[in-house]
Amino acid sequence: MSETVRVRFAPSPTGYLHIGGARTAIFNYLYARHSGGRFLLRIEDTDRRRSRREYEQDILAALAWLGLEWDEEPLRQSARISRHREMVDALLESGAAFRCFVPLEKAERIKQAEMERGGINAFRSPDRELSAKQSQARADAGEPFAIRFRIPTLDVSFHDAVRGTVSTPAHTIDDFILMRRDGSPTYMTAVVCDDSDMGITHVIRGADHITNTPKQVLLYQALAAPVPEFAHVPLILGPDRKRLSKRHGAQALTEYREQGYLPEAVLSYLSTLGWSSGDDRELFTRDQLLENFTLAGINKASAVFDEQKLEWMNAQFMSQQPDERLQQMLRREFARRIMAGEIPHGTGPMLAKAVNVLKTRAHFPIDILDKGRYFFTDPELIEDRKAAKKRLKDPATPDRLEELANRYEKLSGFDEHSSEQALREYADELEVGAGKLIHPTRLAVSGVGSGPSLFAMLGALGKETVMRRLRTLARFLREHGTPPDLGDEDTDPPKLTA
RNA sequence: GGCGCGUUCGUUCAGCGGUUAGGACGCCGGCCUCUCACGCCGGAAACACGGGUUCGAGUCCCGUACGCGCUACCA
């Protein structure tokens, strides 16, 4: 009871941080913070051929983006090789491990043969019974060897916080390698040594490690070190029910960030993939997660990643965000578009209005810029042929748009309210439904048939802009007819301002 | 092949011996409405199969099937 929880996330920098790794990191983080413990990082960079600094940066950046703050300086596994060797030497000394002089090819042949005759028994090195003296002599003579663990005859079992007791018959476990022929420690050696030295109390990792665990438990026991608690979290599968791999599309966390996913949404979604608070909630803030997370809430079965649901969740979080936050997120892309000439200079103040009006109908921040181009620049053409055909067919439309512009011009104060009032009054005078004016006005002002409340748009756009666009469309309709002839599907429609 | 783990709507998460098997995403229909979203209301949709145990089983046990993982001198 006295010891505080210490958990670790141990990525190997041989690729970007993916959904699966991120989820494992999240569970570790949540468990640590929930129980007032520490969340540590260990970079497993001992595969020197495949490890890259660039991936390491990506992983750290992704964790930071999710807000998974780690405690203490991350431990680099490659810096601990001499410690790993020490551990293996101690094991050799105690007899828990032995030198195996069997050449690689021969060991493979033995295993192959065993597999062919049914594969009931695991690999047992013929050298496991060599006397210490013989073993030492051959080593001294310069004969190459690997160091293997001597699997005892007792079966192994361990407790898993997710699955309960997991047992494995000892005869199915290989005399696995602790130290390669070239003197480098293997994964099995490194994890146990590091977890033990780091004082890790709970090992929370992917279910693909379940079958490694008995070997590690045996190592802890041989070392007379305390065995940590294990929790193997279900794997995340792709839509094809195969384990999520780097192959299928945008799996890297940083790519989700680029696409405009909010870290809050990703955190919430990933937390509820394979874990549940026990009730029906599924939108969680970080604080709610920290409060509710328990290992007991983790599921056993693997889960399929559903991007559609993530997207929905993103939209949920989007509409809850303060406008300033969204503006902030958009700033860079907004500046880029201005530089690229896609958005006119001086339209910065419109961004706030676009965000405010559009955020509840956007799934991603970028949608606000894409769907809301008309906030910043006059529509150049009517892209929406269907809407044009349906809403601009009345021959009276050009005159009405013109007249509406004139009425707006006379308004002393122009805002959401007064623009609506004036339009409805005019519609009443004409004895037509307000829709007869609303739809053409929407097309005039935005160039598209769908969007936010018209009057919210008018208010945001301001009198001058609205009048200009109304008159532009009126002129265009007089020139191109009602409904306007917009040409073929595959050619661009004519410009509004010729 | 061997060993391990798993199996509730298409997906996800509830259910922890007695429920009309619930919520969410997606899908379909309706309401709201100036359109599109949002929101609200409603609908279709699941306990892999077979044996037990029990008065009673989605819930406990065993088997089968299927899926996934591991089976490296990778991590």
Label this structure with key terms.
three-stranded parallel sheet, Rossmann fold, 20 helices, 4 domains, RNA-binding, 498 residues, Glutamyl-tRNA Synthetase, domain 3, elongated, mainly alpha
Specify the number of helices.
20
Unreliably modeled segments:
none
Q: Specify the overall morphology.
A: elongated
Which band does the percent of strand residues land in?
5-15%
**CATH homologous superfamily (4th level) name of the largest domain:** HUPs
Structural category is mainly alpha
Number of strands: 12
Largest sheet: 3 strands, parallel
Look at the structure and give the mean pLDDT. 94
CATH architecture level-2 label of the largest domain: 3-Layer(aba) Sandwich
Number of domains: 4
Cross-sheet strand order for the largest sheet: 1-2-3
Distance N to C terminus? 79 Å
As a whole number of angstroms, the C-alpha radius of gyration is: 33 Å
Explain how this protein is built:
This protein has helices at residues 19-34, 53-66, 81-94, 104-116, 132-140, 187-197, 213-223, 253-259, 263-271, 286-292, 307-320, 323-339, 348-358, 365-371, 385-391, 397-410, 416-430, 435-446, 454-461, 463-480; strands at residues 6-9, 38-43, 75-76, 97-100, 146-149, 156-160, 164-168, 177-179, 202-206, 229-233, 236-237, 303-304. With 498 residues, it is mainly alpha-helical. The protein folds into four domains: 1-71 and 234-320, Rossmann fold; 80-189, Glutamyl-tRNA Synthetase, Domain 3 (Glutamyl-tRNA Synthetase, domain 3); 321-375, no CATH class; 385-480, Arc Repressor Mutant, subunit A, CATH 1.10.10.350. The strands form five sheets. It has a three-stranded parallel sheet. Strands 4-5-8 form a three-stranded antiparallel sheet. Strands 6-7 form a two-stranded antiparallel sheet. The model has no long low-confidence stretch (mean pLDDT 94). The chain binds one RNA strand of 75 nucleotides through helix 4, strand 5, strand 7, strand 8 and helix 6.
